[in-house]
Here is the input.
Amino acid sequence: MAIGETLAALSSSKTLILKPSPSPTTSSSSTRSLRHWIPCFSRHHPSLATSSSAAAAAAAEARRSMVEAFDPTIPLAEALTPPSMWYIDSSFLALEFDRVFFRGWRAVGYTEQVAKPHDFFAGRLGNVEFVICRDANGNLRAFHNVCRHHASLLTFGSGQKSCFECPYHGWTYGLDGVLLKATRISGIKNFNKNNFGLKSINVGTWGPFVLVNLDQKILNQQDITEDIVGKEWLGSASNLLSTNGIDTSLKHVSRREYTIECNWKVFCDNYLDGGYHVPYAHKGLASGLELNSYETLMFEKVSVQRCESASVEQDSFDRLGSKAIYAFVYPNFMINRYGPWMDTNLAIPLGPTKCQVIFDYFLDPSLADDKAFIERSLEDSERVQIEDIALCEGVQRGLESPAYDSGRYAPSVEMAMHHFHSLLHASLVDT
Ligand code: FES
Ligand SMILES: [Fe+2]
Here is the structure.
């Protein structure tokens, strides 16, 4: 059995049998990893302990060998790109959720979505369903969007609410997570409403962005300052970004969502090739950029590509200088700042070969009422996205072909892509 098949079999048996029993006192059971559930399973099924521990060892070995198939110590000019398995295998994606997405600060939205008391939006990252809201006192909150009665999702989409009423049996929670009403529970014993509030998630902001941290124990909300989030999320790049127009002065004008038949990293790789594909794949865009001026700066968890722009609008927004900035924030968030615009791209894995990319467009407020200008700009952007989607889906099919395992980097332009792969390797490797 191939590595992928072994792990796929394990993953499916986990889904059917091995869900950890719920505990009112455990706040992060939804983020448990393979390594947590195998010992738990073995304890409850001693007759299977030997075979399950052998399977666990085989799975760990398979994971290790997939991760180590990429060697970040090889210099860029000689390096091979990660093997196809990184882009295809479901157990590799499970490892990425565990080690990458469920650790550290991860962008999930923008502050305008929760600007006023009672604003909320819901989302999903892997198997984590979350809801972010601003409570009646103006405090930003985040919870697992899961009813404590029988696990129904509580709410969907975005908007305003004064409380979360479960659509299934009507249990009702405050925007501070407290269980306000448990319907028709007369006769229930050993039940304390105070122990059945929504489970909290760490939430913070940096500039115009909302982030969650699914890894750390629940922190005191007062301790999650913008400064701390910025340092942990962006490291030494935070200053460069905030002084180059990535701030709260812009107004959100549009959101577009794309479902793409490719691994989430294929989209990121396409973003990180230093403009390499632009003259071939975006002929319209190439005429508006000085591709010779492309430069790439690398920080701890961020890479920034900069390029001179020939766009007309740029001239009237010279506080940014003439350069467009394309910042990639590890692992899956991209911030593009050019002229009066900022757009962000959030790549969310939906499966090993499928992702969703959410584009949010922000504009200088002086142009926010110019509908014709906005429409024209969004159409131009849409054309580029459609070209990129075709590229990404083509790459995914190539990655699944037996003809390909790994490739090479163009050293003068693809350094940010290598940086991304090296960061992933560091997150995934067993320590
Ligand atoms: S699942 Fe929410 S009230 Fe029953
Ligand atoms: Fe592109």
About this structure: The chain has twelve helices and 17 strands. Residues 371-400 form the longest helix (30 residues). Residues 1-16+28-64 form one domain.
